[in-house]
Amino acid sequence: MLAIVDLGIGNIGSVAKALDYLKVKYQIIVNPNDLSKASKIVLPGVGSFAEAVTRLDLSGFRSALLESVYMRNTPILGICVGMQLLSLFGTEGGDSKGLGFINAYVDKIDDFNGRLVIPHMGWNELSSIDHPLFRNVHKDACFYFVHSYAMQISDKAESNLEVIYTDYEQPVVAFVAKNHIYGAQFHPEKSQQPGLTFLRNFVELC
User: Where are the active-site residues found (predicted)?
Assistant: First the structure.
């Protein structure tokens, strides 16, 4: 069963609609106990990192996700703030502790003293699509982004961590992968055919 975690902050409807289009069976999970039945997990999120962490803790999903991903090796795909939650901590709204799956932190995108518009919003190419989740995606494909904060990879990043960037007058982390843990800063559910292909690959390959 593919589980979509509902923290009450995600674009659940858009993700569900994309999976419906792909004819993928899924279940929207509001009770963390039900996560034990999942064969794959999608963790969407929009808005503030701090608010997402608060909901993660109050709902009981933090411990359920840690158990699923660490103990049962359940594949997980974090989307937007859901990807950011995979990191050690984030600074938006004050320092907040993430899930710690990725040795990274989340901080505001540099606006170069007001010269660059924040949030980063719109369509961007990626530095590479050299990963199985981008199978059958054209190398010049664009994906849709909308965010003001981004993952910052630690200098002590794990050797098995794969990182793909987009360019917003600076390298911005767009995708991470470590074993069965994946994160997309872009919104695949809003990225038309390239995004749908990406989602299908997660369902079929993971």
Answer: 80, 187, 189
Pairing type for strands 89-90 and 76-79 reads unpaired
Distances (CA, A) of 180 to 11, 52, 74, 119, 164: 23, 22, 7, 29, 16
Among residues 77, 120, 126, which one has the least CA distance to residue 102?
77
- Amino acid symbol at 177: A
| Residue 155: both structure tokens together | 């200098």
Of the residues 51, 92, 147, 187, only one is catalytic, namely 187
For 194, the 3-state DSSP assignment is helix
The active-site residue, picked from 80, 92, 120, 147, is: 80
Q: Which of 92, 120, 147, 189 is catalytic?
A: 189
Catalytic site includes residue 189: yes
Its domain, for residue 107, covers 2-205
The pLDDT value given to residue 59: 94
Helix (H, G, I), strand (E, B) or coil at 55: helix
Task: Report whether 65 contacts 100 (CB < 8 A).
Answer: no
CATH of residue 76: 3.40.50.880
Q: What is the mean pLDDT of each run of 10 residues along the chain (206 residues)?
A: 91 93 96 95 93 95 97 97 97 94 96 94 96 97 97 78 96 97 97 98 95
Q: Which residue has the tokens 């901080």?
A: 107
